[in-house]
Description:
With 319 residues, the protein is an alpha/beta fold. The protein has one domain: 3-Layer(aba) Sandwich (Rossmann fold). The chain is 34% helix and 20% strand. It has helices spanning 9-19, 28-41, 96-105, 125-136, 156-171, 192-196, 205-215, 252-264, 289-305; strands at residues 50-57, 60-67, 76-82, 109-113, 144-154, 178-182, 240-248, 269-278. An 8-stranded mixed β-sheet has the order 1-2-4-3-5-6-7-8, sandwiched between helices. The radius of gyration is 18 Å and the shape is globular.
Amino acid sequence: MSATYPLSPAMAGFVARSQAFTADGTGIVAARAAYDALCRAFTPPRAATVEWQALRLGRVPARLYRPAGPAPDGGWPAVLFIHGGGWMLGGLDSHAFLCDRLAARLPLAVVAVDYRLAPEHPFPAALEDCLEAWRALEPSRSGLDGCRLAVMGDSAGGNLAVALCLALREAGEALPCAQALIYPALSALPLPSHRALADAPLLSGEDLEACLAAYLPDLADRRRPLASPLEARDFRGMPGAFVAVAEFDPLHDDGAIYAQRLADDGVAVEYRMGTGLVHGCLRGLGQVPEVDQLHDSLCAWLSRSLRLPCGADHRFGSA
């Protein structure tokens, strides 16, 4: 691996440790068990300054991470978080490490969504769940600021975050005030990096195709913008964005192209090309310096974006 992908010693160690979690057998049950074990191994103790609360947003299970103590006037700024895992893996515990840390560091509130997984529930089930959760969220009851609600997702969660914004825009509903995307999967159709980086560590081209086959078994869906957001005609009116990609990741071009198209359509975007990063590297937070740098950039951007004054265009629940 090191001859093909020049990883730092810390990143190489993270990759090696991650690759030790292999499925004991074939099939989705074994894959989920291995992924859950990986997630547990990389999840640090909970922050003492953050409260966790189980929610149900419509029919969708969710979890609220909120700084302990009284909310500021107007409520906590918040992020609706949509986890990655190829639309097939993960849940409320898989990305608790990130939600908990964001709530503790910034501070802000995070609402994590536990959407239905493929292949049992292919497109559009996951997106429908994310939309239901967004529409059912009542900020005032949770101590959140309805004027400062962003959306965030990594990998497949990034796909769902962008699709959420596209669906809300199409329906004429209020959008999140900002979108944060970490190595998002935005094209179900082949891009150059899907081929050029098909043997990258932690996500191969074969892995990507297996995820797409599970989520989008109907090939016709792969040209639908809500399944493959780069198929959208334009991105005018979308929220300002933070888009980070990993250098050694088949999904590199997904985020890079999206960032450029946002900029071309007049949307404010902060683009981060993660030199030396691999897919799924956020789990190396606190262990890999280049991952810590990415997290620092994300936190700085969220802090700036969620201090924006409330305007009619972004007031939760307004048309």
